[in-house]
Amino acid sequence: MDQSLDTIFQKQLDTMQRIELFLDIYKCKPIVADDLRELKEEVCSAGEKLQSTKLYLESDRKDVCSQFIEIMQKMRRNELLMLHLLEVGAQNENATVRSAQSSISKETPLKELQNEANPSKMYLQDYTKSPFASRSKARNIHFYDFDVAITEEEFETIPRYLKGRMQLSELKQFLEKEVVKCFEEKYTLMYKHRKALVNQHDLNEWKVYNSMQANFPDQKFITQDDLSRKTGKALDKKSYSKLQMLRHLYILQEVRSEGTIYFLWIYSK
Fold first, then answer.
1. Which of 178, 176, 189, 211 is nearest to 124 (CA)?
2. Which of 62-76, 103-117, 202-216, 252-266 has the weakest average pLDDT?
3. Cα(46)–Cα(113) distance, rounded to whole angstroms?
């Protein structure tokens, strides 16, 4: 019973204190009302300016990133062009020497490796002009265009929340065995001559690849479906995390268009 009375008295005291506080504030209302109104307006104005600044910075950052990627791509294309011209020049010089030493010469667009177990390696631009592009027989070919090396220092720049306990060797294996292999198999088929395709399945994929290339005419890409077909299963959370790490290292760029997820090759040495 005593506790109940104490509780009632305490509630009454609290109520009285709140009423007294209200009266004190109410007496000051004419004095501080204008100041409070101005402060409220300034807060609203500051909030709008802060939001505008945030939007501007985000837009500016996207523009800068886009310009950076475009410049790096141009540099990469120029580098590949110079290397190709040097290689062609060296091949022409060797061909001239062989012609002078022998009265019988045989012209070959590209020298094929005698050991069939050791796959050829070339640039995509050379592949389109090589005999491999006109032959129906499949050949395991690697391309300099997809050469990439991840250093330990670059790997350490990946945020811990994204990297977890993954090792550099595991990321390299995923890149070489799945991502790069998917690019190479796709463009080996895509750049073949139409008459070299005797398999209906290959022909259907060839048509799809070439129609999709119109979306990114100056870039090499694969889709999420391409990777799934390569691995024989849907991408799991771990595989997608690895793709995010490759995005962080500026090897791939993810683009979504009309419900399709594209991975563009943007790596530049």
1. 189
2. 103-117
3. 69
Q: Which residues contact 20 (CB under 8 A, 6 or more apart)?
A: none
Cα–Cα–Cα angle for 81, 84, 87, rounded to 5 degrees: 155
Q: What pairing do the DSSP bridges indicate for beta strands 252-257 and 142-143?
A: unpaired
CA 254 from centre of chain = 4
How far is the CA of 165 from the CAs of 29, 96, 156, 161, in angstroms?
A: 61, 55, 12, 9
Residue 189 structure tokens? 């088929």
- Cα distance between residue 34 and residue 17, in whole Å: 26
Inter-residue contact 99 to 105 (CB < 8 Å): yes
- Give the CA distances from residue 136 to residues 26, 142, 207, 230, in Å, rounded to whole numbers and listed in that order: 91, 17, 16, 21
CB atoms within 10 A of CB 69: 15
**How many whole angstroms separate alpha carbon 179 and alpha carbon 163?**
18
* DSSP E strand stretches across the chain: 121-122, 142-143, 221-223, 252-257, 260-265
Asked if residues 129 and 219 have their Cβ atoms less than 8 Å apart, the reply is no
* Beta carbons of 221 and 264 less than 8 angstroms apart: yes
Unique residue bearing structure tokens 């995509």? 124
| CB 154, CB 199: distance < 8 Å | no
The β-bridge relationship of strands 142-143 and 121-122 is parallel
Q: For the ranges 8-22, 45-59, 62-76, 102-116, which has the lowest average pLDDT?
A: 102-116
Residue type at 214 in one-letter notation: A
**Is the full-model pTM beyond 0.70?**
no
